[in-house]
Amino acid sequence: MVFKDNTFFSYVFLATTVILFAGHAHGANLCDNAPNKQVCNSIVGSRTNPRDAVIADLNKMVYENKAAKAEAKKQAASTEINICINIFESCIYYNKLALSYLNDGNRNVARDLIGGNIDSYQKCDDTFKNSGMNNPVAKSTKLLKDMASTGVYLSNLI
């Protein structure tokens, strides 16, 4: 009986070791050092290829910009909300452009385009702040800034 218990323990130990080493062979978790691990993990999922993760991030950003634009259009008309709507529209364009550059193998331009989004979303927030108003789409701009930071981080891993 003791022999069977030791054998079982050996198999469990061996299986655990193989699983751990196999995980490292495919690459460490892409989000280990990300600026916002929770957002990164939600985008990356089980992907182990940084390029695939950046593509997923860009596609998700296009979708979330469209959602943010739709939410902004529901707000009362103002100069500030119009600026944010224009920002969301331009970020959709730049994210699609970044996908194109990434597909052409130019990750540096793609990374710079993604990083430029962060400043754009901050401009939306600052426009309301400078007017002494609360940003009604602040949650959207926060999520989009986190997603853009994740995209920049992941593009550096390619």
Structure description:
By secondary structure, the protein is mainly α. The chain has a single domain (37-157), classed as Up-down Bundle (Butyryl-CoA Dehydrogenase, subunit A, domain 3). Helices cover 78% and strands 0% of the residues. It has six helices and no strands. It has helices at 2-25, 37-44, 50-73, 79-103, 107-130, 138-155. The protein is elongated. This is Pectinesterase inhibitor. It comes from Quercus lobata (Valley oak). Keywords: Signal. Residues 1-27 form the signal peptide.
Summed up, the domain count is: 1
Order of SSEs: HHHHHH
Gyration radius (Cα, Å) is 21 Å
The name of the CATH superfamily reads Invertase/pectin methylesterase inhibitor family protein
Structural class: mainly alpha
CATH-scheme architecture: Up-down Bundle
Instruction: Count the beta strands.
Output: 0
Q: Label the overall shape.
A: elongated
At the fold tier of CATH, the topology name is Butyryl-CoA Dehydrogenase, subunit A, domain 3
Q: Helix amount, in percent?
A: over 70%
Architecture blueprint of SSEs:
Layout: H1 2-25, H2 37-44, H3 50-73, H4 79-103, H5 107-130, H6 138-155
Features:
single chain, 158 residues, mainly alpha, Butyryl-CoA Dehydrogenase, subunit A, domain 3, 6 helices, 78% helix, signal, Pectinesterase inhibitor, Invertase/methylesterase_inhib
